[in-house]
């Protein structure tokens, strides 16, 4: 059962003394059902937009748990407002760069994320972008839709080979390894750059190299690092300058891992051949410069957007909230 209160959907309102869970924006039904079945009062923000920061600060002290998403800036102001009542910040996502982990740790508010459940979906979408950029699928489809296709043409939409080429995987955690597994099916040489040696990658025949070598020798460079102070602008103008002119950059990680202005410049001048992007700096405000570039495939941060994956992400967040509000340990804690 739900009613609308103050513009919010409020589930399970009959249990007025029940712990209250603030879900900043609608999540998959699977997660909501778990929360209501656990007897919590669940307050869900807007269907369409993330709450603005003032709204987060206003809601934070009113709830026992907060379930947040990628666009919610859970900074010190929100956490200070939440302290005293809020017992958990549960991210529906694997990435938690939107949460001030140090402050959460200082205030003893546990933070959880949703690792594992989106690995395969994100790896699939990485390949969709890689193939689309290599084979110019966006350009070709746009031409067809305008009704201007003149028929089969020996010289039209000549793209890049994927099979047998070299893929450079930057960040060889779960998603990077899942991308590498798929690359074996394309008979590719696999290089990876990571802080640690990764036996899973080595078992696939991948070779660990330094970032300069990876950039200089890969035909496809794909990014799978979390956004941290070390990885912000990891791919800057100097990194891009090392890439082959025929190379394609794929980013399904975080927009800030790449210096977007440098990337736009490189795509414009043909310094690299193309890019496939699912993430951007300052989402959802996409630089309009991208729209004028035919050699970039653009998606709106849908790496994990499959029905079953989004269900599992919501259920993971709900399971963490249920555990913590029942006095148990969180299932997938983020180290704070
Ligand atoms: C994540 O989980 O961090 C993704 O970016 C959302 O798909």
Briefly, what is this?
The chain is an alpha/beta fold.
Overview of the molecule:
With 336 residues, this protein is of the alpha/beta class. The protein folds into 2 domains: 2-117 and 307-325, NAD(P)-binding Rossmann-like Domain (Rossmann fold), CATH 3.40.50.720; 119-298, Rossmann fold, CATH 3.40.50.720. 34% of the residues lie in helices and 16% in strands. It has 12 helices and 14 strands. The protein has helices at residues 29-37, 53-59, 76-82, 101-106, 119-134, 137-145, 174-185, 199-203, 211-217, 237-242, 260-269, 307-325, and strands spanning 2-5, 8-11, 20-23, 41-44, 65-68, 88-91, 111-112, 166-170, 189-193, 207-208, 220-223, 248-251, 274-277, 296-298. The strands form 2 sheets. The chain has a 7-stranded mixed β-sheet with strand order 1-2-4-3-5-6-7. The chain has a 7-stranded parallel β-sheet with strand order 10-9-8-11-12-13-14, with helices on both faces. Strand 11, helix 10 (237-242) and strand 12 form a beta-alpha-beta unit. Helix 1 runs parallel beside helix 12. The protein starts with a strand and ends in an 11-residue tail after the last helix. The protein binds (2R)-2,3-dihydroxypropanoic acid.
């Amino acid at each position: 059962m739900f009613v609308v209160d103050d513009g919010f959907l409020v589930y399970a309102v009959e249990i007025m003394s029940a712990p209250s869970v603030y879900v900043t924006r609608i999540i998959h039904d699977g997660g909501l059902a778990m929360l209501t079945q656990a007897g919590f009062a669940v307050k869900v923000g807007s269907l369409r937009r993330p709450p603005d920061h003032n709204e987060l600060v206003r809601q934070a002290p009113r709830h026992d748990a907060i379930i947040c998403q990628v666009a919610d800036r859970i900074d010190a102001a929100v956490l200070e407002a939440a302290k005293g009542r809020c017992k958990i910040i549960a991210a529906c996502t694997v990435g938690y760069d939107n949460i001030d982990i140090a402050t959460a740790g200082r205030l003893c508010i546990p933070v959880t994320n949703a690792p594992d459940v989106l690995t395969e979906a994100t790896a699939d979408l990485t390949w969709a972008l890689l193939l689309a950029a290599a084979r110019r699928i966006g350009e070709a489809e746009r031409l067809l839709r305008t009704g201007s296709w003149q028929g089969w043409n020996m010289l039209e939409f000549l793209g890049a080979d994927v099979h047998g080429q070299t893929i450079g995987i930057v960040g060889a955690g779960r998603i990077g390894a899942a991308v590498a597994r798929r690359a074996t099916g394309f008979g590719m040489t696999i290089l990876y750059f990571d802080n640690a040696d990764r036996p899973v990658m080595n078992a696939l025949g991948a070779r660990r190299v330094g970032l300069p070598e990876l950039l200089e020798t890969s035909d496809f460079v794909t990014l799978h690092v979390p956004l941290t102070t070390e990885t912000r602008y990891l791919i800057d103008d100097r990194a891009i300058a090392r890439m082959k002119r025929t190379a394609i950059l794929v980013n399904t990680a975080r927009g800030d891992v790449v210096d977007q202005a440098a990337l736009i410049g490189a795509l414009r001048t043909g310094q690299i051949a193309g890019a496939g992007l699912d993430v951007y700096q300052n989402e959802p405000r996409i630089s309009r410069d991208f729209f004028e570039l035919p050699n970039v495939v653009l998606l709106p941060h849908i790496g994990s957007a499959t029905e079953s994956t989004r269900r599992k992400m919501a259920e993971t967040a709900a399971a963490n909230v249920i555990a913590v509000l029942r006095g148990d340990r969180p299932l997938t804690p983020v180290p704070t």
